[in-house]
Design brief:
The complex is a heterodimer of chains A (438) and B (225). Chain A has 438 residues and is an alpha/beta fold. Chain A is 29% helix and 19% strand. Chain A folds into three domains: 70 residues, no CATH class; 163 residues, P-loop containing nucleotide triphosphate hydrolases (Rossmann fold), CATH 3.40.50; 163 residues, 3-Layer(aba) Sandwich (Rossmann fold). In chain A, strand 15, helix 9 and strand 16 form a beta-alpha-beta unit. Chain B is built from ten helices and eight strands. Chain B folds into two domains: 36 residues, no CATH class; 141 residues, 3-Layer(aba) Sandwich (Rossmann fold). Classes of the chains: A alpha/beta (438), B alpha/beta (225). Chains A and B meet through loops of A and loops of B. Chain A: InterPro entries: DEAD/DEAH_box_helicase_dom, Helicase_ATP-bd, Helicase_C-like, P-loop_NTPase.
């Protein structure tokens, strides 16, 4: 017995009960000489054929394999919800600036416009969306809150659950243990949107400039297709990429700005320090002298810090050298680390005095009173967005709005300079709204 | 510039002087160095019966437990986290393109074995329909093989990988010989090929069927142990 609600606004293969699901569409279709996956719209390579003659898509394999013998079934989204009058159970208060931004977003949603919220790191983006989301939910809309990062989804889900306690919700990501449930609010990774078709009236895309969404046409397409033809979307970001900025300038995308953090202090600026030939030194297992000095000072003052390095493979050597220099009491963490969340929590609980990490901690994590140091900011992995995000880790709490951000480079690169320019510009706008220096 | 079949990143394959002097098209590796390192080859001392990596060259504890039912098996890689991740994507998610990743090492290993007939372990009909390929023959790249074994039609197809050791050991004989098998394997040295050696139940059952068909000797080779 199949549950028909699982097929509302989705595109899924079915094994049983296909007679109640309509005809279905072939999952891999021949178009001219080539084959195209109907789930992710990517072209198959001409070697992706199985010995039994079927063609299969490698691009969306992680969602379960579809072949040219699979059929995908859809039931058009019926919006079968019982909306409540006031679904918002969140009792926090927005600052006047946040209030203004929230009001604007709600107006744009009511006018049916797709839009962007450009709010600095630590502005409280999530809460700003709540009033508009409450309005949408009360109208009976189906809404998705999607992010390219699993961490962001995992962090968001309980917050949204608490803020909209009476609204049915489900969380979707790659290794999630719970089964899918048809619900009004869906918090998911952008990959999961590939399973939907014309399902959502409103899609909120959090951290729209983050990897891998920014560089992946597949995922951008997934968003467009998961949205109803009458639907709209809202992009949330602190660091929009060139393309989005151009769309704002050309007025094809409405933007709401929030250049001030929720506590009203300005962003800490990147302080660039020259570290001559840091890469060569690192290869010999050594670190720049000024960096060591700075970290030792932090340790003496009891100041916790994050040290960002370009690559995972540099981590063991850096940890060894830090140990030799007497900088102990911290650990390294990288993307594939099984104890990642545990280590991050340990730093938050002050059980560790520092973390050495790569760009995986560039967004979505908050530590009160933390100093930030970047080694090798001129490396290609640190894009402008990454640098601004990393700098945004500092001074996030109202108690400790200040925070040092130091960036060691061999040469000034365009990315570093652009990051500084972006922070300066945001701070200038913030000052006009009464932002204070910490 | 080559694209790694597993992680889909581009990489520069290393070129040795030998490759250049051979004056042939350069070999194109399927895996980048990082992905290659996810596999741990079994080198040096190993159990003479099952091929498991160990410090000594005496029969291991598990092989002693088999008693008289002996089998000589070689394995190429250890069944560790990397190999599990590979099998998960190749076998269970059905990413047939990943077969290329282990074709070269298997080719080299087969060249060192002495045998007359190569017999891959078959998959049952339902697996063939859902998976669309036999994971063992996928690794063969031009080598001749004889599919003389078949899975019995009445064999209950709960996969071995979903069972405990005790459950595996009491599995009834799943294989039968093909009608034309006798001509092919009589008085021949047969090499069985399988993906993973876990308890050795499957391979021993296959070997006993091959012996019934009149083979002179049966050894086996698996990708992982």
């Amino acid at each position: 017995m199949i549950n028909l609600s699982e097929y509302f606004g989705r595109r899924l293969p079915a094994t049983t009960g296909t007679d109640r699901l309509g005809t279905g569409k072939l999952a891999v279709k021949r178009v001219g000489q080539r084959y195209q996956c109907q789930r992710c719209q990517q072209w198959l390579a001409n070697s992706d054929q199985l010995p039994n003659g079927a063609w299969y898509c490698r691009q969306c394999l992680q969602l379960g394999r579809v072949t040219s013998q699979t059929k995908l079934y859809t039931i058009p989204e019926p919006n079968r919800f019982s909306p409540s009058e006031s679904p918002l159970t969140w009792t926090g208060k927005l600052s006047p600036d946040q209030q203004r931004a929230a009001e604007k977003i709600r107006q744009h949603v009511q006018q049916g416009q797709s839009q962007l919220l450009w709010a600095v790191t630590g502005a409280g983006k999530t809460e700003i969306v709540y009033p508009a989301l409450a309005w949408a939910v009360a109208r009976g809309w189906r809404v998705a809150w999607a992010s390219p990062r699993v961490d962001v989804c995992l962090e968001l889900a309980p917050r949204i659950q608490a803020a909209f306690a009476a609204v049915s919700q489900c969380v979707l990501y790659g290794e999630q243990p719970a089964p899918y449930r048809y619900s009004q609010l869906t918090v998911c990774t952008t990959h999961q949107l590939l399973r939907f078709e014309h399902a959502f009236d409103w899609i909120i895309v959090d951290e729209v400039d983050a990897f891998p969404l920014a560089t992946s046409p597949l995922l951008q397409l997934a968003i467009t297709r998961a949205e109803k033809p009458t639907g709209q979307h809202l992009y949330l970001t602190a660091t929009p990429g060139e393309k989005l900025q151009r769309q704002i300038r050309q007025r094809t995308l409405v933007a709401t700005y929030l250049p001030l953090r929720y506590h009203g202090y300005l962003l800490p600026q990147l302080r660039v320090k020259l570290a001559w030939r840091w890469r060569e030194y690192l290869r010999k297992g050594r670190l720049p002298r000024p960096l060591i000095q700075q970290l030792l000072t932090y340790l003496q003052k009891g100041q916790r810090f994050l040290l960002f390095v370009p690559h995972v493979r540099d981590l063991p050597e850096i940890m060894a050298e830090l140990g030799r220099q007497g900088i102990r009491g911290g650990v390294s963490v990288h993307a594939a680390d099984p104890e990642r969340t545990c280590k991050v929590q340990a730093l938050r609980d002050q059980r560790l005095s520092f973390l050495v990490t790569t760009t995986i901690l560039e967004r979505g994590v908050t530590f009160p009173n933390i100093a930030v140091v970047i080694l090798g900011g001129d490396d290609a992995v640190f894009s402008t967005a990454a640098l601004v995000q990393i700098a945004g880790r500092a001074g996030r709490s109202a108690k400790f709005p200040g925070g040092e951000v130091t960036c060691y480079v061999q040469t000034q690169t365009r990315a570093v300079r652009r990051a500084q320019v972006m922070i300066t510009r945001l701070n200038r706008q913030g000052k006009q709204r009464g932002g204070r220096r910490p | 510039m080559t694209i790694c079949v597993w992680c889909a990143r581009t990489f520069e394959p290393p070129v040795t002087l030998q490759d250049l002097l051979r004056w042939r098209p350069l070999p194109v590796p399927a895996l980048c160095l990082n992905c290659q390192e996810r596999f741990t080859p079994i080198t040096g001392a190993h159990c003479p019966a099952c091929g498991r990596q160990q410090a000594t060259t005496v029969r291991c504890h598990d092989c002693e437990r088999w008693g008289a039912e002996t089998l000589t098996n070689r394995a190429l890689f250890q069944y560790d986290a990397g190999m599990k991740a590979y099998m998960q994507q190749y076998k269970f998610q059905g990413d047939y393109a990943l077969r290329k990743a282990l074709q070269t090492p298997l080719y080299q290993a087969l060249a060192q074995q002495s045998y007359d007939v190569l017999v891959p372990i078959p998959v049952d009909q339902r697996t063939w329909l859902t998976r669309g390929f036999n994971q063992v023959t996928g690794w063969l790249h031009g080598q001749p093989f004889q599919q003389v074994l078949r899975v019995k039609a009445d064999h209950k197809s709960q996969p071995q990988s979903a069972k405990t050791r005790a459950e595996r050991l009491v599995t009834p004989q799943p294989f039968m010989l093909d009608a034309a098998a006798a001509k092919i394997i009589v008085n021949q040295r047969v090499l069985l090929l399988d993906d993973v050696y876990t308890t050795g139940r499957t391979l021993r059952q296959a070997a006993s069927q091959i012996y019934l068909g009149g083979a002179k000797a049966v050894t086996s080779l698996t990708l992982a142990r």
